[in-house]
Write a structure and sequence with these properties.
By secondary structure, the chain is an alpha/beta fold. The protein has 13 helices and 16 strands. The chain folds into 4 domains: about 5-70, TATA-Binding Protein, CATH 3.30.310; about 80-115, no CATH class; about 135-235 and about 375-400, Rossmann fold, CATH 3.40.50; about 240-370, Response regulator (Rossmann fold). The protein has helices spanning about 20-30, 80-85, 90-95, 105-115, 145-160, 180-185, 205-215, 240-255, 270-290, 305-315, 330-340, 355-365, 375-390, and strands at about 5, 15, 45, 50-55, 60-65, 135-140, 165-175, 195, 220, 235, 260-265, 290-300, 320-325, 350, 370, 405. The strands form 4 sheets. A 6-stranded mixed β-sheet has the order 12-11-13-14-15-16, with helices on both faces. Strands 7-6-8-9-10 form a 5-stranded parallel β-sheet, with helices on both faces. It has a 3-stranded antiparallel β-sheet with strand order 3-4-5, with no helix packed on it. α5 crosses α13 (about 375-390) and α8 (about 240-255) runs parallel beside α9.
């Protein structure tokens, strides 16, 4: 008997009978991932998030491979797997799969699609990608050290793998240069049917978006919205509400009745989303927490090194600083400065996005609260909004929900 292990996304080793090997290899060959060469002692080829490895004659391992390979080989996903991929609760998945009421139609569609993709529903099938009749979509995202943007990019790529009708291209550009962004958008004329963009609110960018839309291209704004442009929709959180939430958290953390100093960091106020967060934060501080004084706002361009340098200077100028709210990315640099100066547990620090380093900061007490939005949901909804609009199909879209994460409620990855 040939010894085969399949290692799932949860790293659960399952023995598989020899009969599984033949269809598995055929599917792998179809994706050009490996050669059926039993003499090869170690052959590794990566595509997307998956790795196939022929370790030695007759032994095959699969690490983090897209779920389409599991269909037809007898491995069923659990409700938890479906819930995690669909971005809903296990209870919602249970209601949908048992055809019970109380679930929105769009949510029901997402759960059923995810369940089919993961091979849970009997008789489900997932077509192999076709090189013809595809819908080209382009996403323009800022480059740099922003971990949230990197996670969003990864989720766009992973979601696109499961939509054979889509041909998705991702462009990472200098994030704070409006001319570069406008030029990238202008270059997409005649090449694409839909564009998703994290856009700077700048006249040249707005004009480029108007020209692109006038040529028949559907446009979705992601994470940070722009007004007065012909976009078909915005996928992202209510940033003003996020800023108010951050102000409420800092206000409740810090003792009332005593004057305290707080400071803000922002990536760039050229992003409308960052400007809205600042506005929401300032409003609630002025309304409900007038004992808190905002002493500085520093723009750090979502860069960890710049954040580190600015944070060190801020801490030196204000030895009595009590709180920090970081509107954008760069928490890693701010956290490093707090740790090196011995003030990590003295200053209340509120930031955004449950990235790996923010999770570590929550656990060691450097960060007190993280306001999270779900990049998986944003990627899914952006792809759906663009593709369904282009195909003339109706859609019911879900905005990502704000969630506050503390050390005690860090969710399972």
């Amino acid at each position: 008997m040939i010894d085969v292990n399949i290692i799932t996304n949860q790293f659960t080793s399952l023995p598989v009978e020899f009969a599984v090997l033949v269809p598995l290899i055929k599917m792998a060959e179809r994706f050009a991932l490996m050669e059926n060469d039993r003499e090869t002692k170690a052959k590794v080829q990566n595509i997307g998030s998956g790795t196939l490895r022929l370790l030695h004659p007759g032994r095959l391992e699969i690490h983090h491979f897209p779920s389409l390979l599991w269909k037809g080989i007898g491995l069923r996903s659990t409700l938890t797997d479906i819930a995690r991929e669909a971005g809903v609760s296990s209870a919602t998945v249970d209601r949908v799969l048992n055809n019970r009421n109380g679930v929105k139609e769009r949510t029901r569609e997402v759960v059923i699609e995810t369940a089919r993709r993961l091979g849970y529903l009997a008789g489900s099938s997932l077509p192999f990608p076709s090189a013809t009749n595809q819908i080209r979509l382009d996403f323009v995202l800022p480059a740099g050290t922003n971990t949230f943007i990197a996670n969003l990019l990864t989720h766009l790529e992973r979601q696109a793998e499961h939509h054979s009708e889509l041909d998705v291209h991702i462009h990472s550009i200098e994030g704070f240069n409006p001319d570069t962004l406008a030029r990238t958008l202008n270059d997409l004329h005649g090449k694409t049917l839909g564009v998703g963009v994290i856009a700077l609110d700048h006249p040249t960018v707005r004009e480029a978006m108007r020209n692109l839309a006038a040529s028949g291209v559907s446009i979705v704004t992601l994470v940070s919205d722009i007004l007065h442009v012909p976009r078909i929709g915005y996928i992202g959180i209510d940033n003003r509400a996020a800023g108010r939430l951050a102000g409420y958290l800092l206000g409740r953390f810090l003792a009332r009745g005593v004057k305290r100093k707080i400071a803000l960091f922002a990536g760039s106020l050229s992003y409308r989303g960052h400007e809205e967060r600042e506005m929401g934060f300032r409003h609630i501080i002025g309304e409900d927490f007038s004992d808190l004084e905002i002493v500085e706002l520093r723009e750090i361009r979502d860069d960890r090194e710049r954040a580190y340098t600015e944070a060190l200077a801020l801490l030196k100028r204000h030895p009595d600083l009590a709180g920090i709210y970081n509107i954008g990315a760069g928490n890693q640099g701010i956290g490093q400065a707090l740790q090196e100066t011995g003030r990590a547990r003295q200053i209340i620090f509120v930031g955004h996005e449950l990235t790996d380093h923010n999770k570590a900061f929550l656990l060691d007490g450097t960060v007190d609260a993280v306001i999270d939005q779900n990049p998986r949901v944003e990627a899914r909804e952006a792809l759906s909004m663009l593709s369904r609009t282009i195909q003339g199909l109706p859609g019911d879209y879900h905005s990502p929900r704000l969630q506050v994460i503390f050390r005690e409620n860090i969710p399972e990855s």
